[in-house]
Amino acid sequence: MKTSIFVLVASLLAASALAVMPATDQFVPALAHAGGFGDAQWRGDVWIYNPAADRPATVDIYLLLRQPNPTPTSQRITVQPGETRYLEDVIGTGLFGLTDTAGGVRVVSSSPVVVTARSYNANVTTSKGTATSGQFFGGVPAAIAVGAGDATDVIGLDQDPSGTTAGFRSNLALVETTGNAVSFAIDRVDPDGTVVGTLACDGSGTCAPLGPWEVRQLDLVLTKFSPPSGANQRLRIRVTGGSGRLIAAGSRIDNVTGDPSTVEMAGGGRAGTYVCKLERSDYESPLTLTVDQGAVTALDATVLFTDADVPACSNFQVLRLAGPLATPVAYDDAGTFNFVASNASLGATLQVNGTIAVTGALSGNATVTITGVPGCSGTKSWPLAGARLP
After folding, report:
1. Residue 321, C-beta contacts closer than 8 angstroms, at least 6 positions apart
2. 178 and 281 assigned to the same domain
3. 150 and 234 housed in the same domain
4. What is the pTM for the complete model shown?
5. Shared-domain flag, residues 60 and 138
6. CB within 8 A of 97, min separation 6: which ones?
7. What's the whole-number mean pLDDT along residues 70-94?
8. Closest by CA position to 46, among listed 33, 62, 31, 64
């Protein structure tokens, strides 16, 4: 029988692609009850679905304005098992009762819920009458926000030289997700990968850091660089300082019809503390990794080495390797890393090969080598699985 000798404090997450998924803390970065360009009347609707079959979800919805929000106002609703709540015009008559207000929302729930939203112009004139035109947003889990040392990309943005009268224009929405300030930089990248320019949002110039739970929209974002127009542009948003984290989303708008399209951020940050386990046949052994500034920086591993690993090992060995790595080990763009840690007094080395997914899951393998211990010297590898702490 497999016995767990330590309690893991994080559930394992599926290493799935970014998609609309249940979560307990998530964000919609761009909603409004306000007028806009060309007599637009912007509104935002939110749907909240409780997939649980046996329990209601208590849901707090925080209104995040386009300013720092250290103490954002909130409303609480209950979503029954299997129920979908529809909050039409959530900033206006749907929940908060405000006008001339733009920002986003944070949705915090007692159990995982699915959040979707639509931001739309309710004043679109067509041959069939006045109708709506808008874009879809899925709730973005706080767990995939990017922190210091990480970056995310928003691709496929355009800005017509005429500005807002022909072709396309693009906006960028950002939201801070932890209640702490965060500095960042935006690189504009041409289709061939050439960096056209960089906008530093760290207070050194005209662009300030994001404040606590601040929502910010950069209209005509490509015009903040030179040249002020271009097609098929990519923005890389890099977190350069502060303890906050951020989520980004783009909007590519047809200037003639006013029709917007959502451009989701590519991937998410990987910083955090990962609680993992070695998938042994007899015992599960814990391994904790600290990831910060784009690298694995610390390890805390306790490994049991027994006769199941080396048959001649009559006395089991309990090995603990803990502390900062001598040199932080950077992961590549796919989140892949590898390193070796050792303890000379124990005569033990641990090699870890892993991949950190943008969803917060970690997979790979760990290999322990014992030397100088009579009967127990040898090498054994186990699969490694784990997840980032919320």
Report:
1. 299, 300, 301, 303, 341, 342, 343, 348, 350
2. no
3. yes
4. 0.73
5. yes
6. none
7. 97
8. 31
> What is the spatial distance between Cα 5 and Cα 308, in angstroms, rounded to a whole number?
16
d(CA 145, CA 243): 12
157-187 tens-digit pLDDT: 999 998 888 899 999 999 999 999 999 999 9
Residue 13 has pLDDT above 80, yes or no: no
136 and 209 inside one domain: no
Q: Is 105 exposed, middle or buried (0-12, 13-18, 19+ CB in 10 A)?
A: buried
Same domain, 327 and 231: no
Q: In the chain, how many domains are there?
A: 3
Last residue of one domain, picked from the residues 241, 268, 295? 268
Domain match, 167 and 185 both: yes
Give strand ranges (E) for 220-344: 230-241, 246-254, 260-264, 272-279, 283-292, 295-305, 317-330, 336-343
Best-predicted range by mean pLDDT among 44-53, 258-267, 310-319? 44-53
Say whether both 26 and 94 belong to one domain.
Answer: yes
The amino acid that residue 253 corresponds to is I
Strand order in the sheet with 230-241: 151-159, 230-241, 183-189, 195-201
Give 115's strand partners: 48
Range of the domain at 282: 271-388
Per-residue pLDDT tens over the stretch 323-378: 999 899 988 767 899 999 988 877 788 899 999 986 678 999 999 888 867 777 88
For residue 19, the one-letter residue type is A
- With contact defined as beta carbons under 8 Å apart, do 58 and 174 qualify? no
Mean pLDDT of the chain: 88
